[in-house]
Design brief:
single chain; alpha/beta; four-stranded mixed β-sheet; 12 helices; globular; binds zinc ion
Length: 300
């Protein structure tokens, strides 16, 4: 089962982008059996979001950091709505301000129609001191639509019935996806550059062996590679996505705090986390416990 799950993930990883339509994934929901868990703090964010080479050039290193919004004029109006929704929360404003006034890191945000309902973060660059100085968040041109699978996206997926009942609008979904991507940036900013490069280098080697050895994850060569990288490609990938989801949940915690349905939303997130991400539950539970909402709901 684990091998099949690995194979399935390899297929997904070839897409590089996080968004996978629900139906396709749910038709093959893999059994979940991961290890490892972290407590959510800003310092603990730090896994990369793309298996693409790290030093691909996108922009010249900037003298100072900030957020650069490179939005085509035809997407400006909708982007403004999504951004306004993100900034309607304390956490959204705090994270935006932090990066808008960052001394080094330049985050470029762009809208691209090629993966319309998805989003991704990549094009990372580091300075000579090993500090992250550039990242690009790419939002799909219809990022306010489409709910990814609950298997790896328990937070974004949980919103679906609430939009169906007109309790939230598409811009909440878009802003949640923005928060997910900010989670990736935070996590990689805390990841050593050398580890990122090592993983980028070893993941393809791991996958090549895996595909040629009968999908045997117990192959000593794979065990050794996983030890060097800090996990199998699947484990690295899911840990990264669940950090994105943790930040998405932080945003939603603020966004729906005063809504009567907020415990129902948290209940759906909890159910998916328990079913598919049990070993990562603590990072979600921390957020739920610190919710400070008008109507506290119980995680456990
Ligand atoms: Zn992601």
């Amino acid at each position: 089962m684990r091998s099949m799950r690995m194979l399935w993930l390899l297929l997904v990883l070839t897409c590089l982008l996080w968004f996978v339509p629900s139906q396709r994934v749910e038709a093959r929901q893999p059994a979940k059996a991961q290890r490892g868990s972290d407590v959510l703090t800003a310092k603990n964010f730090g896994l990369r979001t793309s298996a693409a080479p790290a030093r691909d050039s996108y922009a010249a290193p900037a003298a100072s950091g900030g957020i650069r919004e490179a939005i085509d004029i035809k997407y400006k109006e909708r982007y403004k709505e999504w951004k306004t929704e993100f900034l309607s929360t304390d956490i959204g404003r705090a994270q935006w301000e932090m990066y808008a006034h960052h001394p080094r890191l330049v985050i470029t945000i762009t809208v691209d129609p090629s993966n319309p309902q998805g989003a991704s973060t990549g094009k990372y660059k580091w300075n000579d001191s090993g500090e992250l100085v550039a990242a690009t968040i790419t939002l799909g041109s219809q990022v306010d639509q489409g709910y990814p699978s609950s298997v790896y996206y328990p937070v974004m997926n949980a919103l679906e019935p609430f939009e169906a009942k007109n309790l939230i609008g598409g811009s909440v979904l878009a802003a949640t996806k923005i928060a997910h991507e900010f989670g990736h940036v935070m996590k990689i900013a805390g990841t050593p550059e050398a580890l990122y490069h090592l993983q980028s280098q070893l993941i393809p080697a791991y996958n090549k062996i895996f595909l040629s050895n009968g999908y045997n994850v117990n192959d000593p060569r794979l065990v050794e590679l996983a030890q060097k990288m800090g996990g199998t490609p699947v484990e690295l990938w899911e840990d990264r996505e669940y950090w994105g989801e943790a930040n998405a949940m932080l945003f939603l915690r603020d966004r729906v705090a005063k809504e009567k349905f907020h415990c129902r939303l948290f209940g759906r997130i909890k159910q998916a986390v328990e079913e598919y991400a049990k070993n990562y539950e603590e990072r979600f539970a921390e957020i739920a416990k610190a919710q400070g909402a008008l109507y506290p709901c119980h995680w456990r």
